[in-house]
From TrEMBL:
Reaction equation(s) it catalyzes: 7,8-dihydroneopterin = 6-hydroxymethyl-7,8-dihydropterin + glycolaldehyde
Protein name: 7,8-dihydroneopterin aldolase
InterPro entries in UniProt: Dihydroneopterin_aldolase, FolB_dom, GTP-CH-I_C/QueF
This protein's record includes keyword rRNA processing: no
GO MF entries: dihydroneopterin aldolase activity
Length: 117
């Protein structure tokens, strides 16, 4: 099994519990790690997972839907990726909310989920 890692995909979304998060929106960062069989594969895009198509799927969900919890967003992304990309045996998704409304100094907040077939 091999891994395809897409790190630091940035989008503007309107996710969060607070009303102003839905109104104003914020930047969200998504990491996707795909487990894909490499052994015995050739050198053609049809034999793997097209990460440009994965990016488009992530963009569609993050910018097109509203979630109150980043946990729910991460779970939806994982399910959608496995549903659309049959060659992916498993996926790990992290949704970062670097500007979460937390009173204090912090580097990052993220939710992570892992799903396998």
């Amino acid at each position: 099994m091999g891994r395809i890692v897409m790190q630091g995909l940035e989008f503007y979304g309107r996710h969060g519990v607070k009303p102003e998060e839905g109104t104003l929106g914020a930047r969200f960062v998504v990491d996707v790690e795909l487990e894909v069989p490499f052994e015995g594969r050739g050198d053609r895009i049809e034999e793997t997972v097209d990460y440009a198509a994965v990016y488009a799927t992530v963009a569609e969900v993050v910018t097109g839907e509203r979630f109150y919890l980043i946990e729910a967003l991460a779970d939806r992304l994982a399910g959608e990726i496995l549903a659309r990309f049959a060659r992916a045996e498993a996926v790990t998704v992290r949704v970062h909310k670097p500007h979460a409304p937390i009173p204090g100094v912090f580097r990052d907040v993220y939710a992570e989920t892992h799903r396998a077939r």
